[in-house]
Amino acid sequence: MPSALEIKKIRSLKEKKNREDLGAFLAETPKVVADLILGKMQAEAIYVVNEKVNDWKKKYPNEAIQAVSEKELQRISFLKNPNEVVAVFKIPKKKKFIQENFTLLLDEINDPGNMGTILRTANWFGIKNIICSKNCVDAFHPKVVQSTMGSLASVNVYYFDSSNVLSQLSESTEIYGADAKGDDFTKVDYKKPLALVIGSEAHGIQCFKNIVKKNIAIRALNTENPPESLNAAIATSILISGIMQKIA
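Structure (tokenized):
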């Protein structure tokens, strides 16, 4: 059973400042927690409902697993309907940025669901490095963690302002920006190494606007009554998929 002090600590992880001060973040649901463990994330404590605790201890004998009641799980969970397990993980130490052929840059992505889905998409396509503007949502926000479905263990997320981004990328890097007024992305001849900048649906690219070398756009197949825009996560998936096929 978690102590009052443990419960207070867990609840405090909702706030970015507390996550940074404590060097920890929260993860929930069996799938997310299991994938983070598999990805070698270090768990400080794992709280599992009584009827499932023996299963978890058998599967993860080296982890610090505690049994809790359903009521206790609800107290420490941020989900409306908690599911079996809540875990506190240590925020991993930042790895030195090493550029690869495809770098993803996120500009003012504030919605946790969008951020998590984008990180999950990047992981699916094997993109390791994601650079975020300083005003993006924190990658270890509880809702982001849930949306990534464990992908946080497989990607590196960095936060830089625009003046520092170029110093991380080689001079030969082609930087493409997602913009509705850009060229049809399916007709562009991409060069490696490259970076793709994604802005928010509401404001587009702001912080990284001055470093973009070429704007690219997704053309709607529905020409009669197309939607005004795509959200950032959907646009990212379409662009990465198309670009990857071109540079493969």
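Residues 102-247 form a domain with the Alpha/beta knot fold (CATH 3.40.1280.10). The chain has two domains: 4-90, 102-247.
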